[in-house]
C-alpha cells in the first residue's frame, strides 16, 4: 500500500486557512479606514440660496451621526457661487449610512439641476491624521481664516513635496494660532495634493507665513508645482459653524 504523507494534505489546508483569514482581515482594515472627502459645488446664481440651505441641513445632520468625525461647509471668498464640503468619516460604512439620509439625498439630487457642472468629489488620504479628541475647534474670540489648496505637482517631485509637508505639519500644528492643518494625497492621482488650514485670526496666519519652515515650503513650490502657488490658493469662509455635541 502506498504511504500517504498527511503533511502534504494538512499544510495546504493551513496555508489556505491562513491566507483566507489574512484576506478577511485586510478587507476589514480597508473598510475601517477613515474616509476624508473634499466636495466642490459650482452653483447657478439663481439656485444658490436653495443649495446653501440644503448643504447646511446636510452638514448639521451629519454632525449628529455617530460615524461622523467632522463636517465643515465653506464658501469661496472670491467666487461666491462656489461651495466646499470638507468631511471626515470613521469608515466607509459610516459614509454609506450617511448617504441614506434625506438631507444627503437632497444634496445629491441638486447635482441634477442646481449646478453649472457636476460636483467634484475628491477622496483624500490624510498623511498625518489626528484622533477625534485632538481635532481643535475655534474659540468664541476667534475670527478664523480658512484656506484650501489643491496642488498639481510636477511628476518626479512627489517625494520631495510630501517630505517637506511632513516637516511643516510637525511645526505648524503646535503654533498657538493654528486650529487645523491637514495635508492629503489623492488616491488615483499621484500628482495632486490637498492642504486644508484653519487659523484663529489673520495675525495667526501671517505669523505662520513668516516662519522658516513655511518659507522653505514656498521656496520648494517654485520648482515642484506646475503653476505658481497663487493659482492654487482658495481662501474660504465657513458657513453655519456648529460645534459637535461630543466635543
From TrEMBL:
The keyword Nucleus appears for this protein: no
Keyword Oxidoreductase included in the entry's annotation: yes
SUPFAM superfamilies per UniProt: Dimeric alpha+beta barrel (SSF54909)
Record-linked Pfam families: ABM
Record key words, sorted: Monooxygenase, Oxidoreductase
Coiled coil spans: none
GO molecular function, one term: monooxygenase activity
Record domain ABM: where: 35-123, 145-233
PROSITE patterns associated with the record: ABM
Annotated PANTHER family: ABM DOMAIN-CONTAINING PROTEIN, QUINOL MONOOXYGENASE YGIN-RELATED
Protein name: Antibiotic biosynthesis monooxygenase
Amino acid at each position: 500500500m502506498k504511504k500517504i504523507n498527511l503533511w502534504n494534505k494538512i499544510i495546504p489546508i493551513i496555508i489556505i486557512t491562513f491566507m483566507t483569514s489574512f484576506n478577511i482581515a485586510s478587507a476589514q482594515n480597508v473598510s475601517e479606514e477613515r474616509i476624508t472627502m473634499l466636495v466642490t459645488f459650482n452653483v447657478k446664481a439663481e439656485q444658490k440660496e436653495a443649495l446653501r440651505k440644503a448643504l447646511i441641513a446636510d452638514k448639521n445632520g451629519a454632525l449628529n451621526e455617530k460615524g461622523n468625525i467632522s463636517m465643515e461647509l465653506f464658501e469661496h471668498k472670491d467666487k461666491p457661487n462656489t461651495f466646499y464640503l470638507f468631511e471626515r468619516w470613521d469608515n466607509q460604512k459610516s459614509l454609506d449610512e450617511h448617504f441614506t439620509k434625506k438631507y444627503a439625498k437632497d444634496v445629491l439630487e441638486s447635482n441634477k439641476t442646481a449646478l453649472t457642472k457636476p460636483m467634484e468629489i475628491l477622496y483624500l488620504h490624510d498623511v498625518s491624521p489626528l484622533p477625534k479628541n485632538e481635532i481643535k475647534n475655534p474659540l468664541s474670540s476667534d475670527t478664523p481664516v480658512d484656506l484650501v489648496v489643491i496642488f498639481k505637482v510636477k511628476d518626479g517631485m512627489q517625494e520631495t513635496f510630501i517630505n517637506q509637508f511632513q516637516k511643516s505639519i510637525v511645526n505648524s500644528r503646535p503654533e498657538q494660532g493654528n486650529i487645523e492643518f491637514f495635508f492629503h494625497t489623492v488616491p488615483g492621482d499621484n500628482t495632486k495634493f490637498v492642504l486644508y488650514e484653519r487659523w484663529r485670526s489673520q495675525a495667526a496666519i501671517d505669523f505662520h507665513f513668516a516662519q522658516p519652515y513655511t518659507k522653505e515650503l514656498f521656496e520648494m513650490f517654485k520648482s515642484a508645482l506646475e503653476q505658481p502657488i497663487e493659482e492654487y490658493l482658495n481662501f474660504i469662509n465657513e458657513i453655519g459653524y456648529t460645534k459637535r455635541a461630543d466635543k
